[in-house]
Amino acid sequence: MVFETDDDDAEFGLPHPRWVRTPVDQPRAALYAYRKVEVIGDRHRYRYLGPWPPHRGYRDPRPDLTGWDVLVVQKELYSDDRRKLWGSPIRVYAAPPGVPRPDPARPPEEQGWQELTEGGWPRRSNPGQGAFLQRRLARWMAEGNPWVVEHWRRLAGKQGAAKDVEAERIDDEHLQSARLAEAARVLWRLRRKVVVSWTSDPPFPATVTYIPVIGQDLAAIGLAYPEWVAMQDRVLLVVCPERSAGGELLGSARVYGAPPATPPPDRSVAPEEQGWVELQEGDFLIPWLLHMTMWEVPHQ
User: Per the domain annotation, does 300 fall within a domain?
Assistant: First the structure.
């Protein structure tokens, strides 16, 4: 695709049309970028260069994606249910021209497609990352840390490049865990009278935050996309591992949901035994929480 314009040195990103007027309609979610490559008379020509080309005067060692195809993988991309559209996980892949659309039954990474990061560049491959992380998790398991068991199992069931890809996804989950923990702190600061937070006992403590139905309330205080914020319709429980002395997160956050008016759980009993259900990756309320970390909101 080629754009022609009279503007000088334009660089811009285009989100997927289905994301317009939703919270994922952000610059960091843009899939495409264009840069001027030649001038013909008074016409300035731009061509697809790949997501987020390097800034003028800066040479980036990452690969040039000129002419590559871009694939958006989102199960609910064409859903008319806005909650599903926003809540469905988004992954973006790129491949050279001629690489066929991947078989849905197999991961795109195994079929010549490279996953793009939020910055719009292919992930830098790090061979052996999966085996290294598996050994690291095994040491924490030996110490009795319950947060890392499921991640270790996921890595142990894969080999070679598939293990490295799984390690990258686990790293993404750890980063998301930190954002969920911050979102819980934001909500606690905003509504200290209704949001309750406590810390479980050592040796592997967790911060637990009880969040009642406050979507309409928060939508009225100036958060962006109030129509999305107002959709919160369940009581939430965010459980995040406490940071170790070295500052590392030793696991991923868990978010549970319960019907409205559900009181805070008994701290001596597991949430699952009290009617709380852990939210799945594609649940609308996960990005609802992450949205809280993107905006400065006034204290109430």
Answer: no
